[in-house]
């Protein structure tokens, strides 16, 4: 019997558990440990609430979680309730699937002013993550979103939507109520490079054309010559086609979602809170890298959301690559018995589905590196350790009771109303 502990219950964690099941069959026991009492990681608290079709992948993970040899161990903090060395002594393999939940810092003067928020915090706020439930984003003045990926589009779209447009979503009630009290009449999306270098996908860009009160805006002068689109890969070509359509449109709506390409923030200013962003024009060299030009201008802003990437928080005693913001590893191997998977392995790149081959790669490593008769205790040893420390463990059965309570509390048309505090989640177990 192989005993595997997976730290993190998001897509990478469950795909790793699924891969171990397929490879080892009944000869494996997988414990999926998570700091929160609820599973699914970024599926629950990272994917936009109005993208319910993407969140439906959780049902696949549920099938894995309900099998006999996989267990969810929620409300357990690695490093506090149990340490990595303790887990390595109990399990044949310990897999870090912690994702990349920390914002990459904007690192410009003024980025600590009230009203400057990282996307992990902002997205966590409207998705009901307990760490960010108390956030109150300002609604005064224009908004600036920094970034050229889908997270930047999600943030801009959420800021621009009407309450009615959230029908069928699981945006949490406190965020929906707060957003309904006002609106930013202009949301500027700052991208350091140009339309041919964006990481925005066609589906997410296309959604902007169908908003009730907001219209996307692109300066035609920012678009490269049309003939250059032919060299792009198909998905990016479709994205650029959306941008060209936005540039040609004349929609008259009260909120403008303005794309500002070849622009990077260099200073954020304000008296006690953010009031403006100083931006510098950039130019691309032959290699497609952005360089500063010295030309600056100012954008008014009452809110700045930085969507420039994420980092995996370090864990004491685990080798860490601070430059890349992930655990130091070679194809997932960190040290004997210790592995990383998903964003914790490769950094915040790829889609949810990209984590599946990562999980199967890790299962192959575990097969090559371990034996089925190591004598390690695995699950019983962890249970005994947590019981001695008085840790209130949440099981998958508990989670299903929490989920039932969230579904029962949902507003009309919504799939659920998430609990936004750990105490409320624990109380909902009954």
Task: Describe what you observe in this structure.
- By secondary structure, the protein is an alpha/beta fold.
- The protein has 2 domains: 2-101 and 312-427, NAD(P)-binding Rossmann-like Domain (Rossmann fold), CATH 3.40.50; 103-306, FAD/NAD(P)-binding domain.
- It has 15 helices and 19 strands.
- It has helices at 11-24, 42-45, 52-55, 58-65, 84-90, 119-127, 150-160, 173-179, 202-207, 234-248, 343-346, 355-369, 379-388, 396-408, 422-427; strands at residues 2-7, 28-33, 70-73, 93-96, 102-103, 116-118, 143-146, 186-190, 214-218, 255-260, 263-269, 276-284, 290-300, 303-306, 310-311, 320-321, 326-327, 333-335, 338-340.
- The strands form 5 sheets. Strands 3-2-1-4-19-18 form a 6-stranded mixed beta sheet, with helices on both faces.
- Helix 1 (11-24) packs across helix 4.
- It is globular.
- It starts with a strand and ends with a helix.
Q: Profile the largest sheet.
A: 6 strands, mixed
The CATH topology of the largest domain is given as: Rossmann fold
Strand order of the largest sheet: 3-2-1-4-19-18
User: Class of the largest domain in CATH?
Assistant: Alpha Beta
The CATH homologous superfamily of the largest domain is named NAD(P)-binding Rossmann-like Domain
List keywords for this structure.
31% helix, 19 strands, 430 residues
């Amino acid at each position: 019997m192989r005993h595997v502990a997976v730290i993190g219950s998001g897509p990478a964690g469950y795909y790793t558990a699924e891969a171990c099941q397929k490879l080892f069959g009944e000869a494996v026991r997988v414990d999926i440990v998570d700091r929160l009492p609820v599973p699914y990681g970024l599926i629950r608290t990272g994917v936009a609430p109005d993208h319910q079709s993407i969140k439906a992948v959780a049902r696949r993970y549920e099938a894995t979680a309900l099998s006999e040899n996989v267990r969810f161990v929620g409300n357990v903090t690695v490093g506090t309730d149990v340490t990595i060395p303790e887990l390595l002594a109990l399990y044949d393999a310990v897999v870090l699937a912690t994702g990349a939940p920390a914002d990459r810092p904007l690192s410009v003067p003024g980025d600590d002013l009230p009203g400057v928020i990282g996307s992990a915090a902002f997205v966590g706020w409207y998705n009901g993550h307990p760490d960010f439930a108390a956030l109150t984003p300002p609604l005064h003045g224009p908004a600036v979103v920094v970034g050229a990926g889908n997270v930047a589009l999600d943030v801009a779209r959420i800021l621009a939507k009407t309450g009615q447009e959230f029908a069928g979503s699981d945006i949490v009630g406190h965020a929906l109520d707060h957003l309904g009290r006002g609106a930013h009449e202009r949301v500027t999306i700052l991208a350091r490079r140009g339309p041919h270098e964006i990481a925005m996908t066609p589906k997410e860009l296309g959604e902007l054309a169908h908003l009730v009160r907001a219209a996307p805006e692109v300066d035609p002068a920012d678009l490269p010559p049309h003939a250059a689109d032919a060299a792009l890969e198909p998905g990016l070509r479709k994205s650029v086609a959306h941008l060209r359509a936005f540039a040609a449109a004349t929609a008259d709506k009260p909120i403008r979602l303005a794309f500002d390409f070849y622009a990077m923030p260099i200073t954020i200013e304000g008296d006690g809170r953010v009031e403006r962003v100083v931006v510098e024009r950039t130019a691309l060299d032959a290699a497609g890298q952005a360089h500063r030009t010295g030309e600056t201008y100012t954008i008014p802003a009452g809110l700045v959301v930085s969507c420039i990437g994420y980092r995996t928080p370090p864990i004491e005693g685990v080798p860490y690559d601070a430059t890349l913001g992930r655990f130091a590893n070679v194809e997932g191997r960190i040290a004997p018995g210790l592995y990383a998977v998903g964003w914790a392995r490769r950094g915040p790149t790829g889609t949810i589905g990209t984590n599946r081959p990562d999980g199967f790669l890790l299962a192959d490593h575990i097969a090559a590196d371990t034996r089925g008769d190591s004598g390690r205790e695995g699950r019983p040893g962890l249970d005994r350790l947590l019981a001695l420390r008085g840790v209130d463990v949440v099981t998958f059965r508990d989670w299903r009771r929490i989920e039932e309570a969230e579904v029962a509390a949902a507003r009309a048309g919504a799939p659920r109303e998430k609990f936004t505090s750990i105490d409320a989640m624990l109380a909902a177990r009954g």
